[in-house]
Structure formats: C-alpha cells, structure tokens
Specification:
One of its GO terms (biological process) is isopentenyl diphosphate biosynthetic process, methylerythritol 4-phosphate pathway. It is built from 10 helices and 12 strands. The chain has about 300 residues and is of the alpha+beta class. Strand 10 and strand 11 form a beta hairpin. Helix 2 runs parallel beside helix 3, helix 2 packs across helix 4 and helix 6 crosses helix 8. The structure holds 4-diphosphocytidyl-2-C-methyl-D-erythritol (CDM) and adenosine-5'-triphosphate.
Length: about 300
C-alpha cells in the first residue's frame, strides 16, 4: 500500500460511492486519577458519554490511500503530519494482512487539543469505516488493539456509548444514562494532555486514591448529578494551574440559568454544562456566545 498522505481537498469518486461515519465528542463526566502505572500512563476511572457534537469522516474505498481535510477546523490541522486518522490506519494495516485502504475526508468541526477527544473520535471512525469495507467484525480483537495503539481515548471512542472507562482507557463497562441538555465551551486555548498529567507530579508506580465504582445504570438525572457531585475531574486543578484563564470559562457556564453541573472534560480546556433539556442548553449557549463571541460554544445533548 502506498504511504497514506494528508492533502488539501481533491476531486475523487462520485458521492454515491462514498461512505461516512460521525465522530462524536467524548465527554468525561467524571475523571478520577487513581495513580500512575509503572509504564508511565495514569490509571483512570471515568464516567464517559458522547455528545451530539461531532466531526464527520467520509470514505471513498476506491480513492488513493490518504486523507483530505475540510470543514471549519481544517486549518488548525493542516500542518499536522501525524493525523490520528492516518495513525489508526497504520495500526490496523499492521495487524490485518491485505487490509484495503482508500481515501478519507475529514470534516473537522470539533476544536483540537480540547479534552473532548476529537482526534480520537476521528481515529475510531476511520477504524469503523475500514472494518465495514474489509468485512471485519466490529468486535474483532485487532480493532481494539489498533485503537489502543493509536491513543488511550480511541478504544472508548470505538465503543461509542456511555460507559465507565478504567485503566489507561482500555477497560470499558456500559452504563445506562438518561439524556441531558449539554453546552460545550472552549476558549480556543489548546491544552496539551501530557502537560496536564505531568503537572500532577506522580511518579511511576505511585497510587494516590481509590474510588467506588459507579452503578451500572442511572434511572434519573438526579441520580447522575448526585453521583457526579462527589466525583470531580482530577485534571481540572492542574489544567487551571497551567492556564488560569480557564476560570472564566467555568464561571460563565456557572452563571447560566438552570445549569445543573459545570465541569471540565478530559485534560481541558473544554468545559461543559449539564441542563434538564436542550432548550435550557440552547438558552445558556446564546448567553455565552453574546458575552464571548470569540469562544467555541456548542449547545447539544448527551446521554
Ligand atoms: C485525559 C483523557 O482524555 C481522558 O479521557 C485521556 O486519558 C487522554 O487520552 P489521549 O489523548 O488519547 O492520550 P494519549 O495520546 O494516549 O497520551 C497523551 C499523553 O497523556 C498521557 N496519558 C494519557 C492517558 C493516560 N491514561 N495516562 C497518561 O499519562 C500519556 O502519557 C501521554 O503523554
Ligand atoms: N484528526 C485529528 N483531530 C484532532 N487532533 C488531531 C488529529 N490528528 C492528530 N491530532 C493531534 O492530536 C492531539 C490531540 O488532539 P485532540 O483534539 O484529540 O485532543 P483532546 O481533545 O485533548 O483529546 P483527549 O480528550 O483525548 O485528550 C493534538 O496535538 C492534535 O494536533
């Protein structure tokens, strides 16, 4: 297979031949750091769910292997040589003999390096497209292995449903969640995941806390909120220490009417607000956009 490349949009086969997958934003509703493993990765326990906001990955199986970038976020990735879509392709190619690979077009809508796993979601979408077009079962072990080799958040994005995520990101247990209105706010300040973990100052092999597992399901929003109140995002203090301006993002969300919970996702800098329904979320988003038109603000649903 020729080496896949990243390139500006080009003409390719007609739309009828194209396939597509959504690549939804991953939200860490809670995120406990339990310690640091001997291999350097941190041991996590995180309640994860997926938002209505997404990138979109189109695929032309007959096209030349590679990736074209489109959409409002394309420019932020244009000089990125190691796109996670291409990394996932390489990892699956290394595991599946004779894997046929075509051309991807990424419609980039989610902010980059923002704690909502956009790149991981894109990588998972690429794996799903390759599985569909190569006759691999979605639960083929090689899919999971390629996902984990691509990044810690890629397995959960491949899974794509609300779950408890543990370990480095490889242990996933389904959790039933009721629906919330959701507002995502990103101040367009990229935050490097590695720097936030490093700020915790844990040495390999160090344990720092234990947490009780969440229930396997929540019947009501009140139950979810009660659970989350005692389970913050442990990466929020180090992210705020690195980027004190994140305080304004949390404060703006906390000031919106009818907000039930405000928290950072992943390693930041995206914060989210939970609301009872999407109308309350839409109202809140409007207020934030009016105050900070320079921020990325998205009103959607989760659960
Ligand atoms: C913070 C989260 O977004 C929570 O879902 C993820 O744990 C991060 O997942 P990710 O961005 O896919 O992370 P990777 O690309 O695998 O790793 C990026 C950096 O974060 C560190 N990292 C990541 C995951 C983890 N459990 N422990 C870590 O210490 C890695 O050492 C690496 O330096
Ligand atoms: N398709 C992609 N979309 C976004 N970022 C990508 C992509 N490919 C590679 N990257 C690079 O991956 C890194 C992480 O990007 P991403 O947007 O997934 O971060 P994140 O939202 O903080 O993820 P996480 O929540 O998993 O930590 C950035 O350095 C970015 O340049």
């Amino acid at each position: 297979m020729p080496h896949p490349t990243t390139a500006a949009p080009t003409a390719s086969s007609p739309p009828a031949a194209r396939l597509a997958e959504r690549a939804p934003a991953k939200i860490n509703l809670s995120l406990a750091v339990l310690g640091r493993r001997a291999d350097g990765y941190h041991e996590l326990s995180s309640l994860v769910a997926f938002a209505g906001a997404a990138d979109r990955l189109a695929y032309d199986p007959a096209g030349a292997p590679g990736l074209d970038l489109a959409g409002p976020g394309a420019a932020t990735l244009a000089v990125e040589p190691d796109n996670l879509v291409l990394k996932a392709v390489r990892e699956l190619t290394a595991r599946v003999e004779g894997l046929a690979v075509g051309r991807f077009t990424l419609d980039k809508r989610l902010p980059v390096s923002s704690g909502i796993g956009g790149g991981s979601a894109d990588a998972a979408a690429a794996l799903r497209l390759l599985a569909r077009t190569n006759g691999l079962a979605p639960d083929d072990r090689r899919m999971f292995e390629a996902a984990l080799a691509t990044g810690s958040d890629v397995p959960v994005c491949l899974y794509g449903r609300a779950c408890l995520m543990r370990g480095r990101g490889e242990a996933l247990t389904p959790v039933a969640l009721p629906r919330f209105g959701l507002v995502l706010v990103n101040p367009r300040i990229p935050v490097a995941t590695a720097a936030v973990f490093r700020q915790l100052g844990l040495v390999p092999g160090e344990r720092c806390r234990s947490v009780p597992p969440p229930p396997t399901g929540f019947a009501t929003r009140a139950e979810v909120l009660a659970f989350l109140t005692g389970m913050p995002n442990d990466l929020e203090p180090p992210a705020r220490a690195l980027e004190p301006s994140l305080g304004e993002v949390a404060d703006r969300l906390a000031g919106t009417p009818a907000v039930r919970l405000v928290r950072m996702s992943g390693s930041g800098a995206t914060f989210f607000g939970l609301y009872d329904d999407c109308r309350a979320a839409a109202r809140a988003a409007k207020l934030i956009v009016a105050a900070r038109p320079d921020w990325w603000v998205k009103s959607t649903i989760i659960g």
